[in-house]
Amino acid sequence: MSHITIAASSNAFVQLFNKIRDNFTFSKSDSGSFGPFSASYSVAMHLEGGNIQLNNDDTVEVKHLKIVWDTLKVEVCFNLPGFCIGGWCIIPDPWNGCLVGVPKICIGGPICVPLDLSGLVSEVNDLKANLKPVYFVDPARTAGESDLDAEFAGHPNKWRIFLDPVFVHVDPIDIPASIANIIENIVRDAIENMFPVLPGFIVDALLAAIGPILDLVKGLLGIVGDINDWLTDLLMNTFDLLGIIETAIADYFAAKTPIYEFEDPYPVLDAGPGLIPVKIPIRNLASHVNSKEMIVTADVG
Asked: pLDDT tens, 119-155?
């Protein structure tokens, strides 16, 4: 039996990786109720960059692979406790009780905080993988269909070489601390919208009576520490977005998109006028890497 060996340099391997990296996309949405609040998210992301290294232990390692969050939207909803404020006199009237007073205002109910964090960047800080050859039988083939007929029909079988991750480590999203100010302003506007039309100085007095808005929000949501850390934990751990992304990336490289593929039988001469293509069967394919190149070996015939 004859043998063939195909090699691709480390630079060529990087180009192969970049091509499948650029085809990766992922999107997901979810929601849940967590005691004092409910939350939902919608995300979409793609991959960019990455430093690729071929190792002499037959592994490929990718570091600092960027995750670009094309969509990262979060909404947190909670109930503002019903309470009443106001009802006091600003200018008393010795004869009729009060000339100018602040009416008693009762507020409360649901408040939702929509946050659009699209455009943030995190990264896969490390991905290590082996090469895995897989024989793919095209499901479009019919029983008894010959390799030549499959060639003409456009669905030949293939050998595919995948990057099979040993591990994928994704960094949590780094949500900026300025998100606290955004949340405070959104909640302040929501509370103001609960008030009837009142003079500005009265609204200010009512808000002052409620107290610091951010402290109110943190108390209602049970937040201890920085609100950006809490939001990161909500997405990455409570919703397990970290694990979901790691699994999606691992599945993509390991089973969905090969780094290289070719037909079996392999065409060595194309069809010409009055001629059929010449193809040779490939058997026992194996793939390996060292620090300089990817090597594919196989038996022919």
From this structure: 999 999 999 999 999 998 887 777 777 776 677 767 7
- Tokens at 221, concatenated: 């949501």
> Cα separation of 167 and 151, whole Å?
37
Q: What is the pTM of this model?
A: 0.83
* pLDDT class of 13 with cuts at 50, 70, 90: very high
* CA 282/CA 276 separation, integer angstroms: 19
What pairing do the DSSP bridges indicate for beta strands 25-34 and 157-170? unpaired
Residue holding tokens 């991750």?
165
Closest Cα partner for 136 from 289, 282, 297, 294? 282
pLDDT tens profile 204-245: 666 676 668 788 788 888 888 899 999 999 999 999 999 999
Burial pattern 107-128, b for ≥16 Cβ within 10 A else e, equals: beeebebebebeeeebbbeebb
CA distance readout (Å), 80 to 6, 34, 126, 218, 219: 67, 16, 43, 12, 11
- Closest listed residue to residue 202, CA positions, set 81, 79, 80, 91: 91
> Are 148 and 276 spatial neighbours (Cβ–Cβ below 8 Å)?
yes
Integer Cα distance of 221 and 234 in angstroms:
11
